[in-house]
Amino acid sequence: MKARNCLLIAGLSLFLTIPCWAEVPIVDRACIPNLVVEHVLSDVPNNMPVVIDVVASDFTIPIESRLKEALISQKLELFEELDKDHHLVSISLYDHHEFFTRKSGLFPKKKRYVAYNFAYQVTEMPNQRIVIHKNFKVSTQLEEVNISGSKWYDTLLISLIVGGLAYLFYFGAN
Asked: Is residue 31 part of a domain?
């Protein structure tokens, strides 16, 4: 029974046009470093010195600087080199996709988004034990484009509608 339901759901999903990133929050690109720092700060332990390792493409410098400022404001010790009594906080951007959504209707529009997948982990260095490993997704809207490509049958369809309405008004009164 479960297999049949899964096949039915898979078959229906082929016909639905819901994007797979529908549950991902859409934020401004400039807010992404702040959002990453908020996620990481809630999981950084307060009892040991911290070393930060950020590999996140063009977000590396903003994330690293904002995270350092936030950790210093929390009175945590930051180090550049790993030692046996430190926590390593690693942040990485491991994937990003472009995807499109299309609104059809009288005035169709096409929106282009980029979804970023971030992963971060906190590792306890004496025994290299991973204390926390989490990932999260966030997306940004790049542009919205009006699609003005009319089809060959659009003028014919509009003519039929207007002609039908004119016929109804003229002969409908009799």
From this structure: yes
